[in-house]
Design brief:
- It is a single chain.
- The protein is about 55% helix and about 10% strand.
- It is of the alpha/beta class and about 400 residues long.
- It folds into two domains: about 240 residues, Spore Coat Polysaccharide Biosynthesis Protein SpsA, Chain A, CATH 3.90.550.10; about 140 residues.
- The chain has a seven-stranded mixed β-sheet with strand order 3-2-1-4-6-5-7, with helices on both faces.
- Helix 2 links the parallel strand 2 and strand 3.
- The protein is elongated, with a radius of gyration of 28 Å.
- The two termini are about 40 Å apart.
- Bound molecules: guanosine-5'-diphosphate and magnesium ion.
Length: about 400
């Protein structure tokens, strides 16, 4: 494969020659099965970084430089990667800092993951033996760990440990799909945005642990507070949009309409057929199940719509089992609340009311997504998911 390592630079005169030499003389010779290039994306650094690279280009034919205005790191990557795809026809693009923060010895491991079929390989500092720089102060360490934990929690994607890091290898297809995310945001928010969109688009993600090392020469260019503010804003807004676009709001409307159907049908059945109250409620309950199942299938979860008649039937049976589980949960909760406090109408009603958002919604939405409509693929439940059909 053709690989382009994009090195963004702004005033890296102290590092760039040493890094390029290390890559060319020590790392690349170990990689025999790929054709590797370096693209320096320099923003007309006043310290003469570009001149140093131009001198090295005379020596290394696989070294290139693209200049541009200083418009932030994301814009520099966009420029470098666009050149990689359009001019070099690269299949794989690397993101890597020019200040030795990212251990270049790890490049072969990234490429191995790509060979295994992954689309997006992330260098991670937070699991499997990865590490943040040892010489960082305690504050910075806590801050860095906490920020990533917060992002993972808000996005509710725990299998990716390092969202903010800038040591990555992506396939050309990922770049072409997500290229608009690179220059949309200030600071390093683009790193999260590119990765998050790749996750939503279903690209296969892998992680490679590495030890980060603080720069020895030159200065860091980040402005921490702006960075954190933009990042948090991005993550919260994006998660909100994800939920908004998911089946969840429609599922909630279906659930509420089901409640109304249940209440009304109880009265209609009782009054028109003269059945006992209990039987009327049970029949109304089953009518509600049918209503909920059909509306969820053809509207809320229409992206995973079940169409074959046989499957519709077996899924409806499963749906009833899930609904029965909800009843059990409500029953247990009301029972617990009344025995814990007092068996009054107020406690019963409050317990019933609270049990819906606390237990029934998380439980049933999860079951629908895992077993009925199967939007979520949970590795350790994959056997059960298969059985569910
Ligand atoms: N082209 C370009 N490179 C940048 C810019 N900001 C940072 N870089 C480069 O991006 C890498 C990481 O930047 P650095 O200042 O070390 O950030 P830190 O590691 O988060 O402190 C280095 O190679 C920088 O030279 C920019 O605005 N334009
Ligand atoms: Mg750095």
């Amino acid at each position: 494969m053709k690989v382009a390592i994009v090195l963004p630079t702004y005033n890296e005169e102290g590092n760039i020659q040493r890094l390029i030499t290390l890559l060319e003389e020590e790392i690349f010779p170990q990689i025999k099965n790929h054709n590797i290039h370096i693209i320096v994306a320099d923003d007309n650094s006043p310290d003469g970084t570009g001149k140093i690279v131009e001198d090295l280009i005379k020596k290394y034919k696989n070294l290139h430089i693209v200049y541009g205005e200083k418009q932030g790191l994301g814009a520099a990557y966009l420029r470098g990667m666009t050149a990689g795809v359009e001019k070099l026809h690269a299949d794989v693009l690397f993101e890597m800092d020019a200040d030795f923060y990212h251990d270049p010895k790890k490049i072969p491991e990234f490429l191995k993951k790509i060979e295994e079929g992954y689309d997006f390989v992330i260098g991670t500092r937070y699991n499997n033996g990865g590490a943040i720089p040892k010489n960082w102060g305690l504050h910075r360490k806590i801050f860095s760990i906490f920020a990533n934990l917060l992002i993972r929690t808000i996005l509710f994607r725990f299998s990716i440990h390092d969202w903010t890091g800038g040591y990555r290898a992506i396939k050309k297809e990922v770049f072409l799909k997500e290229r608009n995310e690179f220059a949309k945001y200030g600071g390093y928010t683009f790193q999260v945005a590119v990765l998050y969109n790749a996750v939503l688009d279903g690209f296969k993600i892998a992680e490679v642990p590495f030890h980060a090392t603080d720069r020895v020469l030159g200065r860091s260019k980040i402005a921490p507070f702006d960075y954190i503010k933009n990042l948090l804003q991005y993550v919260i807004v994006s998660k909100f949009i994800e939920i908004w676009n998911s089946p969840f709001p429609k599922y909630a409307i279906v659930g509420f309409s089901g409640y109304l159907i249940n209440a009304i049908s109880l009265e209609i059945i009782k009054n028109s057929f003269g059945l006992s109250s209990g039987l009327s409620a049970a029949l109304g309950g089953e009518l509600t199940n049918i209503w909920n199942f059909l509306l969820n299938n053809y509207w809320a979860f229409s992206s995973q719509k079940i169409t074959s008649f046989n499957k519709l039937f077996s899924k409806f049976v499963q749906f009833n089992i899930v609904a029965f589980g909800s009843l059990v949960l409500i029953g247990l909760f009301v029972e617990a609340a009344t025995s814990l406090y007092s068996d009054t109408s107020l406690v019963r009603q409050v317990a019933l009311f609270v049990s819906i958002p606390l237990l029934v919604i998380p439980y049933s939405y999860t079951m629908y997504n895992i077993f009925i409509w199967k939007r979520w693929h949970i590795p350790f439940l994959s056997k059960l998911q298969k059985i569910a059909g």
